[in-house]
Design brief:
Helix content is 51%, strand content 13%. The protein is an alpha+beta fold and 187 residues long. It has a domain of 74 residues: DNA Binding (I), subunit A (Orthogonal Bundle), CATH 1.10.30. The strands form 3 sheets. The chain has a two-stranded antiparallel ribbon. A two-stranded antiparallel ribbon has the order 3-4. The protein is elongated.
């Protein structure tokens, strides 16, 4: 049985060449009933009607294919270095505070690269309890915290690094340790 050269789209009812239809093995003729243009239009309408579901689907796919996304991004950046520089420039202009923090972290890593496993094993105090609030970290998300923040010229050396719960780490941010302790005592 030979494949016909044309087919009628079930949605727009136009007769089109078979090249304008996607394949579908379950169909008798091996092609979808709607043309590619109608399928695209239907997908576009769904994305506009369900933006949050589309974002969630994209996020889930990116999580499941993290390595593939990194490879694609790396290849795109290498193929378009000027475009990457433009994107970075625009981001730095829109986020001056984040840029400053990223620079501090980069300089700290360069000054003293300490393996995270070593820090957890040798942190001052109990590595199974938060340095600031004392809550147990067993089964919780453990973070490495700078006692004197990088933004306040705190070095990335073992004596300035402690294990902390993610709550204390995110709340303290670049607060001076004495101010932070006062907040903990008052709060």
């Amino acid at each position: 049985m030979s494949t016909p050269a044309t087919k009628t789209c079930s949605k727009c009812r136009e007769v089109k060449p078979v090249e304008q239809f996607n394949k579908r093995n379950a169909a008798k003729d091996g092609l979808q009933s709607r043309c590619r243009e109608c399928v695209r239009e239907n997908d576009r309408a769904w994305r506009q009607a369900n933006p949050e579901r589309k974002r969630e689907k994209n996020r889930a796919w990116r999580e499941a294919n993290r390595e593939r996304v990194r490879e694609n991004d790396r290849a795109r950046y290498q193929a378009n270095p000027e475009r990457k520089r433009e994107i970075d420039r625009a981001w730095r202009k829109a986020n001056p505070d984040k840029k400053k923090m990223a620079d501090h972290r980069r300089r700290a890593r360069k000054a003293c690269a300490v393996p995270q496993r070593w820090i957890v094993d040798h942190s001052l105090g109990d590595p199974l309890a938060c340095w600031w609030c004392g809550r147990g970290l067993l089964g919780a998300k453990v973070t490495i915290e700078h006692v004197m923040p990088i933004e306040l010229k705190g070095p990335t050396v073992p004596s300035n690094l402690v294990s902390a719960c993610s709550t204390c780490n995110s709340r303290k941010q670049e607060t001076h340790p004495l101010v932070w302790i006062a907040e903990l005592v008052d709060g």
